[in-house]
Write a structure and sequence with these properties.
Elements lengths: L2 H12 L4 H7 L5 H22 L7
Length: 59
């Protein structure tokens, strides 16, 4: 996958798109690479949330 493609997948993963949707949006990209990008982004986001201790009240 090209760097530009990777950044597109990263952006969509950061916006909250689920893995299954990402795979459907990018059927020509290798599934393993899209999955790796998705997992890496979510690991980074989870670390950030834990570090900043963000909480959400949706009520």
């Amino acid at each position: 996958m090209k760097e530009q493609d990777r950044r597109a997948v990263e952006g969509m993963a950061r916006s909250g798109m689920e893995l299954e949707v990402l795979l459907g949006c990018f059927p020509s990209f290798p599934k393993e690479e899209v999955t790796d990008v998705y997992c890496n982004i979510h690991l980074l986001l989870n670390d950030y949330r834990e570090d900043t201790q963000l909480s959400r009240n949706c009520s």
